[in-house]
Design brief:
By secondary structure, the chain is an alpha/beta fold. The protein has one domain: DHBP synthase (Alpha-Beta Complex). The chain contains 7 helices and 11 strands.
């Protein structure tokens, strides 16, 4: 498996993601595993790797404008958008269900959306599509933090920046107003 650093990210990596690559990447909290959230085949592959058959995935949005275009924003959601980028996953109702493939959010009317306070958000912007973001682990097991743990997942490549010691993002349901700490 190829291991890249931030400085290795170029047009080729972006094209691989656009063609359906599944990859592991750092965020402002922990490592994520993901793919283009509009690519049904790639999202199914992430589900298989995580052994996650039912629960929805969140995405890293390519921009705030993408969120505004594809989601219905309540006043609560608008207030939370002002906190992005940051360590939050905002649950927001989708306005355009075709903005992602149904495998991403399991056909629900809402979607978990992140914009991490991390350079990985720039990669999502360059790809121009939402990127599935979920912790690198088998469903219900501890998440991977070091390269030797990450390499056990059959991803196409890893973008590595050293061991991560953070915790997953705080989930904010902007529809119900509930905040779910992890």
């Amino acid at each position: 498996m190829r291991v890249y650093s931030r400085k290795d990210i170029d047009k080729t990596v972006i094209e691989e993601i656009a063609k359906g690559a599944v990859f592991i990447y750092p965020t402002d909290t922990i490592y994520g595993i993901g793919c283009d959230a509009t690519n049904d085949k790639a999202v199914k592959r992430v589900r298989k790797l995580k052994k996650r058959t039912a629960n929805p995935f969140s995405v890293i949005a390519p921009s705030i404008d993408w969120i505004k275009e594809n989601c219905t924003l309540t006043n609560n959601a608008k207030a939370w958008l002002l906190k992005l980028p940051g360590p939050y996953t905002l649950i927001i109702n989708l306005k355009k269900t075709n903005a992602i493939c149904p495998q991403t959010n399991m056909g629900l009317k809402n979607l978990g959306i992140r914009i991490p306070d991390h350079w990985i958000s720039d990669l999502a912007a360059k790809v121009g599509k939402p990127i599935v973001t979920t912790s690198v682990n088998i469903e219900g097991k501890p998440f991977a933090t070091r390269l030797e743990q990450l390499e056990k997942f059959d991803a196409d490549f890893i973008i590595y920046e050293g061991e991560k010691t953070g915790i997953p993002s705080t989930i904010v349901d902007t529809v119900s107003g509930k905040i779910i700490k992890r």
